[in-house]
Amino acid sequence: MASTSTQIISFSSTSIPRWNHDVFLSFRSEDTRYSFTDRLYTSLVRRGIRNFRDDKLKRGEEIGSELLKAIEESRLSIIIFSPNYAHSRWCLDELLKIMECRKEMGQTVLPVFHHVDPSHVRKQTGSFGEAFDNHKADTEEKKEKVQRWRTALTKAANLAGEDVNDG
């Protein structure tokens, strides 16, 4: 009997995700950091919601792995799609991780379309199409990654979200 309860405890402790953040904010800094994202972050903090944005990184930490870890440790991800979001390879890599966590861990994902048409995100047209024109895929590996970015954008844009066109 002792071994059975040990197995149950062991199983439950490894199968229940540990959330260090309620919300992970994914955004293109130059578009929204000092406007929409800052107001959203402040509003969440006021309500006692633990959220992560990249300014919480400590000096000297590796940005990439720390951000990916924060995504995994978040209960919900809010993706703020803005005109220059897809120009950032890092934003697109964040998006890949967010969509992976949605699929594998059941993470909730909320897209916010900030001054962009959701169909431009979904179909990679407008500023999103321009961004992909700049993401040159000269090797098979890069072509595969670009395709994964496109698929992630389409899937994220197909989720119910919010359309925001104010400051």
Automatic annotation (TrEMBL):
InterPro entries (alphabetical): TIR_dom, Toll_tir_struct_dom_sf
Name of protein: TIR domain-containing protein
Source superkingdom: Eukaryota
Location of the TIR domain: 19-167
Annotated TM spans: none
A Pfam family: TIR
PROSITE patterns hit by this protein: TIR
Organism lineage string: Eukaryota, Viridiplantae, Streptophyta, Embryophyta, Tracheophyta
Gene3D superfamilies for this protein: Toll/interleukin-1 receptor homology (TIR) domain
Source organism of the structure: Vitis vinifera (Grape)
Keywords: NAD
